[in-house]
Design brief:
seven-stranded mixed barrel; globular; alpha/beta; Rossmann fold; ten-stranded mixed β-sheet; single chain
Length: about 350
């Protein structure tokens, strides 16, 4: 076992044991509270640029199952209390350590993840490094920023995913870091899905005459994606649209709203969300560090709110034939309470629900 360190930008040091890739790394340290779903977490492109801390203490018990990947592994590092190097699962392809080595992702275990979570909850997300030796100068850690990550994780070329069974609709999915289950949820509802790079111009999207446009999840600060925001402005009102996570934030910015960074974000599979148009509260899967400022929402109405802190979780744009949510109705991992939103999108494309 090789000793390693997690060093926070404020100088605090946590000793642990290295696993995964044996290299140093710097990233934004965030925590996620899911008790399962570490495979989907590691392969969610929305974590690009970040060192992920799992609050659940036992990670790797059921191994790595490649069939369950949600996308590319984009995390900068991985921190757990205890990692299992001998998983018991007939579906497992390898263990966690092997996977992290394959992906060149440094890991650290044997760390007091409970104390780290308390620090982040109190002080907010902060930068950190995983290293073999504690650096004398923390300037590189202090000045690190998650930037340009949508460009880094989006697909290079368009791909077409045929509908399951007969085709009912054609959907263009703009890939800002899309999870694969978004595609699957649309396919099983009879949608042929064309996944497009984030750099695709609105004119090209409209020229293909899709029945609807989906705006995917993705990483980073939404406000830095000025090109993508401009394209959404051109699309709004011209085609039915459904945005998830980053797609929700970009749509709000395109409609004249603003976003801000949360203290420590919402990352986990049990975030309660209230439907302000009804009486239901849904348990949702979430992974975001930014939120839409509800007080700045224009051309729409806030439809969903987080039951814990009241932050904006969804907006309806009835005049623009669009709606967006901050949480993940496609789950993977997490509850599927809100998968009905994909059915609502189909109603939009049929010309029904507004």
């Amino acid at each position: 076992m090789k000793k390693g360190y997690l060093v926070l930008q404020d100088g605090r040091v946590f000793e642990g044991v290295r696993f995964g890739a044996e290299r140093d790394t710097i990233g934004e340290l965030v925590f996620t509270t899911g008790m399962c779903g570490y495979i989907e977490t590691l392969t969610d492109p929305s974590y690009a640029g970040q060192i992920v801390l799992q609050t659940y203490p036992l990670i790797g018990n059921y191994g790595i199952i490649r069939e369950d990947f949600e996308g590319a592994c984009c995390v900068k590092g991985y921190v757990v209390r205890e990692q299992c190097d001998a998983p018991s699962n007939f579906r497992a392809d390898c263990n966690l350590d092997t996977f992290l080595k394959e992906q060149n992702v440094p890991g650290l275990y044997g760390v007091d993840t409970r104390e780290l979570t308390r620090i982040i909850r109190e002080h907010g997300v902060m930068n950190a490094c995983i290293c073999n030796e504690v650096p004398a100068d923390l300037e590189a850690v202090e000045t690190y920023a998650v930037t340009g990550v949508v460009k880094a994780v989006t697909c290079a070329e368009p791909t077409v995913h045929p509908a399951d069974g007969g085709e009912r609709f054609k959907v263009s999915l703009i890939d800002y870091g899309a999870k694969r289950n978004i595609v699957r949820e649309l396919q099983k509802r009879g949608c042929t899905v064309t996944v497009l790079p984030a750099s695709t111009a609105a004119e090209e999207i409209l020229a293909a005459k899709p029945d609807g446009v989906m705006l995917s999840n993705g990483p980073g600060d939404p406000a830095e994606n000025t090109f993508e925001i401009a394209q959404i402005q051109k699309l709004l009102g011209k085609v039915p649209m459904f945005g998830i996570c980053l797609g929700h934030q970009l749509t709000a910015l395109a409609a004249g709203g603003s976003t801000y960074k949360l203290k420590y974000g919402h990352r986990g599979v049990n975030q309660p969300v209230r439907d302000l148009a009804g009486v239901r509260t849904y348990i949702t899967s979430q992974n975001h560090g930014y939120a839409v400022d509800s007080g700045t929402v224009q051309k729409g109405v806030v439809r969903f709110a987080n039951a814990n802190d009241g932050t904006c979780e969804g907006i309806d744009y009835p005049e623009l034939r669009a709606f967006t949510v901050q949480f993940h109705p496609e789950a993977c991992t997490g509850p599927k309470d809100t998968s009905f939103l994909f059915d609502r999108f189909l109603e939009f494309m049929k010309g029904g629900d507004r």
